[in-house]
Amino acid sequence: MIDVTLPQLGESVSEGTVSKWLVNEGDLVHKDQPLVTVSTDKADAEVPAPVSGRVMRRLVNENDVVPVKTVLCQIDETATSASAPAVAAPASAPAIVPRPLASPSTRKEALEHGVDLGAVQGTGDHGRITKDDVARAKAPAMPVAPTQLAALINSSGGFVPPIPGIGFASFKLPQYRPSPGDQVIPFTRRRRITADHMTYSKFASPHVVTVAEIDLHKASKLREANKERYKKEGQALTMLAFVVTAAARAIRENLAVNARVLDDAYVILKDINLGVAVDSPEGLVVPVIRRADELGVRGIVRAIDDLAKRAKTGKITIDDLSGATFSITNPGIKGNLFGGAIINQPNVGILRMGEINKRVVVVENAEGEDQMVIHPVMYMALSYDHRVVDGVAANSFLWRVTELLEKADFEI
Question: Which is nearest to 356 in space by CA: 326, 385, 334, 383?
């Protein structure tokens, strides 16, 4: 009997949701045939059959949240089309005991604080128990006044954070009261994980935002002079490609923004893997351009085109979405002046492009005199983690990005 387990679906993925079984018990399958689809916070994936044979038992149900290496089903590789589909378990087979849905990290949190998960009401997808639910279970039963702040320091010396949906200390959120016409939209698993990710990022990383004004006159002229040539080759020469190229070069010269924080240290990462936000049918995803500093404009254009097309057709893979060391986000044609994006953990920086508008700027003419001209201008905001990135390093990086874009210092 061959056990089919949930594989490691990307370096940062520790669990998945069984979204749909594609085979039934008793079905004959061939090697590499998809057996089940699994959803993670990054993408959906199919788990293939490792061998040909008959599916004897399905050990997990649809909507179950299971850790990596969990046995999903068993296949009898000796079975043939003439074999009897003896799929029923013996009468003496042990029953599968229902278990609370919770991630390994949530279970660890509950164990450390003595919380019985069996007594916790899960508020996540399909009743899944979240860390917020565990926090509620161990939170003080009575409101705590601000003067009692010291009581909110737990036994390990850590600070008890505000509880989303509940409140903090003497402040409690008012209860929602439905009104005619209100539309209640349940969180999908991916939206829940995105919300938890953003909340964690704002809580864990002290965000600092710095903004640069960038004159794109030369970069725009360079793009206009070459975009038709790229178009004939089936590629789009966008300002995003210039920004990604400039950011990759600037990071190579300012590696402090290419890092991640550990428990009691931080790591300056060697490879520059840029996560670039693109739209998909299920919302925004952040596929990764690996070793972006080695590609140049043409290589970046190809990478962005490939990732964007696969994202729109739902063919993006979990590996495509893993391993970013720095992120870039583009609000698109309906963007606004600028904004400070939330850092994509475990990165320590994210660069957000603003809208490009024509503005009056002051330049120096050939005679060394100042004159007013109309140029395309963009504001770009860098959000960085002040735990490990100092203002000098952050400003040096953003200054270099600005310089590269304003000089249009690119080979295309």
Answer: 334
Q: Convert 201-246 into a string of H (helix), E (strand) and C (coil).
A: HHHHCCEEEEEEEEECHHHHHHHHHHHHHHHHCCCCCCHHHHHHHH
Separation between Cα atoms, residue 185 and residue 179, nearest integer Å: 14
Question: Which helix H or strand E contains 333, and what residues bound it?
Answer: none
Structure tokens at 396: 């040096």
The single residue of 217, 293, 390, 409 carrying the catalytic annotation is 390
Counting as low any pLDDT under 70, the low residues of the chain are 10-12, 41-42, 80-98, 100, 104, 124-127, 139-161, 164, 282
Q: Can you give the pLDDT at residue 221?
A: 96
Residue with tokens 């100042």: 370
Phi then psi for 404, rounded to 5 degrees? -65, -40
Decide if 386 is catalytic.
yes
Query: Do 59 and 95 contact (CB within 8 A), yes or no?
Result: no
Q: What's the pLDDT score for residue 156?
A: 46
Scored b (16 or more CB within 10 A) or e, 118-146 reads eebebbbbeebbbbbbbbbbebeeeebee
Choose the catalytic residue: 30, 32, 126, 386. 386
Q: For residue 297, give both structure tokens.
A: 């404009």
Nearest to 378 by CA among 209, 210, 213, 211: 213
Helix locations, 239-295, DSSP H:
239-253
What is the 8-class DSSP label of residue 270? S
Q: What is the pLDDT of residue 226?
A: 95
- Residue 342: its pLDDT value, please? 93
- Only one residue has tokens 């999903």, namely 72
Q: In what order do the strands lie in the sheet with 71-76?
A: 2-5, 71-76, 53-58, 28-29
Active site residue 197: no
CB 110 within 8 A of CB 102: yes
Bridge partners of 382, per DSSP, are: 210, 351
CA distance 279 to 299: 20
pLDDT at 220: 96
Q: Encoding tokens for residue 349?
A: 């920086």
Q: Which two tokens stand for residue 39?
A: 């959803």
Residues 275, 244: Cα–Cα separation, whole Å: 10
Predicted confidence at residue 121, as pLDDT, reads 75
